[in-house]
Amino acid sequence: MRTAHTSLRPSSFRTGTDHNSNGRPDVTWLTAAGTTATGAYLSDTTQTFLAFELDSTEYAETDAAVMVTYNSNDTSVKWTLPTAPSGTSWHVALDTTQPPGAAPPM
Asked: What angle do CA 68, 72, 73 make, to 5 degrees?
């Protein structure tokens, strides 16, 4: 994954800033509700879910965005996928809850 997506191996820290004037920040941190995570959410040690969306166009990728989600709980978390960037749709590239070679759930 990191080889295929330069946005997963940046040369500098992401700042939540739109560097290429497309109206999207380089990184957006998200809650399970699919909303932007606040400082309070990010500081809450009881939260077990965290996601981030990377604006891949900041790294000259052909994909518009990369979404990464984490659930540190031992049970499933129902979460809301945010709207994909205009003119695109999300697809699952990797799901660590599935055995190797299994088709991603949709």
From this structure: 130
